[in-house]
Design goal:
The chain has seven helices and 18 strands. With about 280 residues, the chain is an alpha+beta fold. Strands 8-7-18-15-10-11 form a six-stranded antiparallel beta sheet, covered by helices on one side. The protein is elongated and about 55 Å long.
């Protein structure tokens, strides 16, 4: 196990080879615990910790590490780049809920309000989960096209404005936007203002709206409300659009995807550690 040291700015650094490394996104946290507090708790458990500086690339840091277990403390958008590195190196992956919604953590069965308790996953049990691909881009939750993606892009553009104003403006866009996407799925026209490609099936009934009961079904689910069919299930989809590019939200992060794009599933590809509940 490697040693750890602190710099003057409080960031945690690793010294020597490590078995486990936790990358902490301080911009994802909700205030308690702070990124520094979470890092100290990780160190106390023998886990190397690194608080990311603004502009840092977590995938590059993970690639430089020799750790056999790679963890991320952040929101959903922070996870996939490091999960990609874990796949490439056949390392185990740990998700620590440290963002606003933490959908992947919830679907793993973690308590989204207890990031420190989730550190037990580094000594936990292994399970294999599916990952999705949008061409070569890995996603753990979903990729959305259309109105929700547009809201994500507007949210990112307005994040320096007052939160309440940005939220009201987003709802105005949602209620007033009537443009159809004009896209095709495997060559079939799909008339919907929203297309969502999900890694495994989402529950569409209350009270579990948006949750996934399993992460190892080995299927993509494509949802297009208002179209026929409204849901398609397959291991692969090809989505195209005449406009050539579409605004997208990949695990909640704004992107612009070039069309056509191939979505595919990689069954049970990712080794994930979760706390032992026995």
């Amino acid at each position: 196990m490697g040693r750890t040291a602190h710099s003057k700015d409080g960031e945690t650094h690793t010294c020597g080879p490590l078995k486990s490394l936790l990358l902490i996104n301080p911009r994802s946290g909700r205030g308690s615990p702070t990124a520094e507090e979470l890092g100290k708790q990780a160190q106390a458990r023998g886990i190397g910790a690194h608080v990311l500086e603004p502009g840092a690339n977590p995938a590059e840091i993970a690639l430089r590490s020799s750790a056999s277990v790679l963890g991320v403390a952040g929101g959903d958008g922070s996870l996939a780049p490091v999960a990609q590195v874990a796949l490439e190196r056949d390392a185990a992956f740990v998700c620590i809920p440290f963002g606003t919604r933490n959908h992947f953590a919830r679907d793993l069965g973690l308590d989204r309000d207890e990031p420190i308790a989730a550190l037990r996953a580094f000594d936990g049990v292994e399970q294999h989960v599916d990952v999705g691909r949008a061409d070569d881009r890995l996603f753990l939750n979903n990729v959305s096209l259309g109105i929700y993606a547009r809201l994500v892009h507007r949210r990112e553009g307005n994040r320096r404005r007052r939160e309440a104003f940005a939220r009201v403006r987003a709802w105005v866009i949602l209620l007033s936007h009537r443009e159809r996407l004009g896209i095709t799925v495997d060559g079939d026209p799909v008339e919907s203002r929203l297309v969502l490609v999900a890694n495994n099936a989402y529950v569409l009934e209350l009270p579990s709206l948006g949750a996934r009961e399993r992460l190892d079904e080995g299927k993509l689910h494509l949802y297009a409300p208002g179209s026929d069919p409204a849901e398609r299930i397959a291991g692969r989809f090809v989505v195209d659009a005449a406009v050539g590019r579409l605004e997208a939200a990949v695990d909640g992060e704004p992107e612009v995807l070039k069309m056509p794009i191939e979505f595919r599933i990689e069954p049970r590809a990712l080794r994930v550690l979760v706390p032992d509940r026995s």
